[in-house]
Structures are given as structure tokens and as C-alpha cells.
Amino acid sequence: MAYQSLRLEYLQIPPVSRAYTTACVLTTAAVQLELITPFQLYFNPELIFKHFQIWRLITNFLFFGPVGFNFLFNMIFLYPFKWNQHRNFRYRYCRMLEEGSFRGIAVGHIYFFLEDIFPNQPGGIRILKTPSILRTIFDTPDEDPNYNPLPEERPGGFAWGEGQRLGG
Q1: Do residues 63 and 38 lie in contact, with contact meaning Cβ atoms separated by under 8 Å?
Q2: What's the maximum distance between 2 C-alpha atoms anywhere in the chain?
Q3: Of 76, 46, 42, whose CA–CA distance to 62 is shortest?
Q4: Cα separation of 91 and 82, whole Å?
Q5: Domain boundaries, given as residue ranges, for the chain
Q6: Distance of CA 59 to the CA centre of its chain
Q7: What is the pLDDT of residues 41-53, one digit of tens each?
């Protein structure tokens, strides 16, 4: 009886969330049972491009660490809130948001890789370049090496002189 209600609850999860949640649980269970190690899952560009371990493009999104409090919270946040199926507009809107959030995560990871990881690899180049118009608008101007600040702008303020010793 409890199995049937759990099964029905599982089948009510939208397909994208259901597939992702299932993949996360199975991946974490495989690591917990020591069928695979986290070292077989993590994102490593060298292993992906030179040794063709393509699965690393996906598996690094599926493992949340060992089963514990953190894993439980990740699963709770993946589980979508129930909504009334009679309201098709709301259902479609939530599905659209759900799929968009996964795209956002993917785009963010691709940007991080292209901006921070790949250029620092041996032979890596910076593929993404900031458009010059944005650089002109938002960058701070270079400091002039010949600039001589006013005395009040210098560290330590004014040269006040020797002063007088207290108590003497």
C-alpha cells in the first residue's frame, strides 16, 4: 500500500526532474556502495578531451557527496512542489522554469570553464573576450605613474613636524 502511494508520488514529478533526481540518487548510491569512486565522476578537461571520458561532462552534476544531511537537502530542493494539475498554465510555466534553471546551471558551468579553467591549462587560450564597449564603460582607468597626490591624499596625511612631547 505504501509502495503504491510512493510510486504514484514519484510518477507525478515532472519528467525532467524525475530523470535528474533518479540519476542523482543512483549515482550517489553507486558511490556509497563503492561500485564507483568520486574520482571517476569529477570534471577533468584533460581526461575528457584527451582520453575521451565523455561521461564526466554529465556525472559531475549528479553526485552530491556522501549520503547525509547535505544529500537530503539537495534531494528536497530537487523535489518540485505539488501544484494543481487542472491549471495547465501554471504547470507549463513551472516546467518552463525548471528546464530554464538547468540551462542556466549548464551555461554558468561552461562560462566558468572557458573563463577560468581552460585559459590556465598548458596550451590553453582565452576564448571569451569582453567587448571593448563594455570595457570602456565599466573598467577603471589605468593609474598615471606620473601622478603626484596632494598631501592630504598621501598615506599618513600631512607632515606635522616634530610636535611636543607630553609631560615634559
Answers
A1: yes
A2: 93
A3: 42
A4: 10
A5: 8-82, 86-139
A6: 15
A7: 888 888 888 999 9
